């Protein structure tokens, strides 16, 4: 009995720190608009690379598709490949030679995934202090 209670306690302790798939959470959000420093870097990269020119200020799509919708189905590998290599014949640029994008690919993905998941409720975010 003691062992069981201990086991349950341990489970409850570990659970909130982990995403459903057992990996560390991609991003941290408070109140829909405050994010951890890494996700903040993702937002800054999004702005600096001007992805909004084609995907819209709120990621909901313009010339390019809605990334809110895309990231619900696109795998992380496909995301990285698309942003790195582009789809030149279809109007998506290659960001291969953009150091900020290449260095912050995971952060950019985390930010956009947070938007797509609905956890980040508006495009503009602030850093959790
Ligand atoms: C010049 C316009 C333009 C810019 C700037 C641009 N994109 Fe795109 N993007 C597109 C178009 C057009 C597509 C659709 C390509 C296709 O039809 O397969 C696309 C597709 C994508 C896809 C794949 C979506 C899917 O459902 O397959 C991702 C992810 C993406 N863009 C992310 C980004 C990110 C991140 C940035 C900034 C670093 C960015 N894009 C900047 C035009 C742009």
CATH class: Mainly Alpha
Q: What is the residue-mean pLDDT, rounded to a whole number?
A: 90
Radius of gyration: 17 Å
By DSSP, the count of extended strands is 3
Distance between the termini: 42 Å
Q: Quote the CATH topology.
A: Cytochrome Bc1 Complex, Chain D, domain 2
Quaternary state of the chains: single chain
Going across the biggest sheet, name each strand in turn. Answer: 1-2-3
Would you tell me the structural class of the helices and strands? mainly alpha
Ions, cofactors and other ligands present here are: heme C
Order of helices and strands: HEEHHHHHHE
Quickly give the CATH architecture.
Answer: Orthogonal Bundle
Explain what you see.
Pfam families: Cytochrome_CBB3. Keywords: Heme, Iron, Metal-binding, Signal. GO terms for molecular function: electron transfer activity; heme binding; metal ion binding. InterPro entries: Cyt_c-like_dom, Cyt_c-like_dom_sf. This protein has about 130 residues and is mainly α. About 50% of the residues lie in helices and about 5% in strands. The chain has helices at about 1-15, 35-50, 50-55, 65-75, 75-85, 100-105, 105-115, and strands at about 30, 35, 125. A 3-stranded mixed beta sheet has the order 1-2-3. α2 (about 35-50) crosses α7 (about 105-115) and α4 crosses α7. The longest helix is centred in the N-terminal third of the chain and has 13 residues, at about 1-15. It is globular and about 65 Å long. The structure holds heme C (HEC). Heme C (HEC) binds near residues 53 and 65.
